[in-house]
Amino acid sequence: MLSVRWLQSLSLALALAAPWAQSNAQIKWDLASANPPTNFQTINLNRLVEDIDKRTNGALKITHHSNASLFKMAEIRRATQRGQVAMGEVLLGTMVNEFPLLAFDAVPFLFTSREEGVRFWKEIRPYVEKRLAEQGLTLLYVQPWQPQGLYSTKEIKTVADLKGTRFRAHSPVFAKYAQAVGAQPLSIPYTELSQAIFTGAVDTMMTGITAAADLKFWKSMPYYYDVQASFTHNIIFANTEKFNALPEAVRAEVRNASASAEEGALQNVIALEQAQIKTVTENGMKVLQPDPKLRQELQAAAKPIIDEWL
Fold first, then answer.
1. 60-65 and 27-32 as β-strands: parallel, antiparallel, unpaired?
2. Side by side, which strands form the sheet with 233-239?
3. Which run of H or of E encompasses 233?
4. Nearest C-alpha neighbor of 272 from the set 38, 80, 35, 99
5. CB 3.0 to 4.6 Å from 236: which of 45, 141, 203, 241, for a disulfide?
6. pLDDT digits (tens, 9 = 90+) for 177-222
């Protein structure tokens, strides 16, 4: 004889499965991102995909194409708009030419602390969602990066030491900043960065400590100055038409999974940052606090860019 507990469990399982059973077919999506498989942003996206699969009982299957294997970072937003993929992930700063407000998290030294950046993001998020909606995109999830530090192949004592260096600029705003300090800005995708550093094509740049841990910068670019120049984010969005075409119950679970992924993301990034600083230091990288004079000069170089953004 079947137990009452077993029958109750079966009834609950059937109730949860019912909304997706009505859709009659499994839905398949593609997700395009640009970071390598070992990067924490990629790992977090994989977790999101797994969570969505679990929450929807397999009704929505998402295939994650990382490492710019489908589209380069600069192409992902338009590919998602056109429906070539259903979901995409990009660095917020890659969209600043069309929407200058989005440069807030990339303008060097606009904020003096991570807390300021977090507060501002909460204020402008509705505007970002509105802007994306106008482009046929639905914002799902936001993932912060670690603070942007200064990397160099040689010791940097003053801003004058940056003059003439080949500066990898990952966004239009940082290209302007490279010019402001007298460096030559170079646009190099993350997937090609390791080779560029190894061959000497790049001397300096600003990015988070994750890059050093992922790509083993200590071999060719051993100096890291914790200047905390900016606090950047990646955003994950869906093609709005495809998102709205999902059964209501599936769409709700995608929202729930995205909210869960975003919750606690900042604390996870801080913990990862501490672990990665330990890793690169143990491998011989010099993780340094900037001299007060150097910090002052770096901030002064950013003032025209801050004024322009304001």
1. parallel
2. 60-65, 27-32, 87-91, 233-239, 137-144
3. strand 233-239
4. 38
5. 141
6. 999 999 999 999 887 898 999 899 999 999 999 889 988 999 899 9
Q: Judge contact between 262 and 141, C-beta under 8 A.
A: yes
Provide CB contacts within 8 A for 30, sequence distance 6+. 62, 63, 65, 70, 85, 86, 87
Secondary structure (3-state) at 174: helix
pLDDT tens digits, one per residue of 223-232: 999 999 998 8
Sort strands 204-207 and 27-32 into parallel, antiparallel or unpaired.
unpaired
Residue 283 in tokens: 């491998």
Measured between alpha carbons, how far is 210 from 274 in angstroms, rounded to an integer?
10
Q: What is the CA radius of gyration of the chain?
A: 22
- One-letter amino acid at 226 equals D
Task: Name the 3-class secondary structure at 184.
Answer: strand
In this structure, are residues 81 and 135 in contact, taking their beta carbons and an 8 Å threshold? yes
Neighbour count for residue 67 (Cβ, 10 Å): 15
Residues of the chain with pLDDT under 50: 1-2, 12, 15, 20-23
Amino acid at 57: N
The rounded distance, in Å, linking the Cα atoms of 7 and 140 is 37
pTM value > 0.85: no
Structure token pair of residue 219 = 């071999």
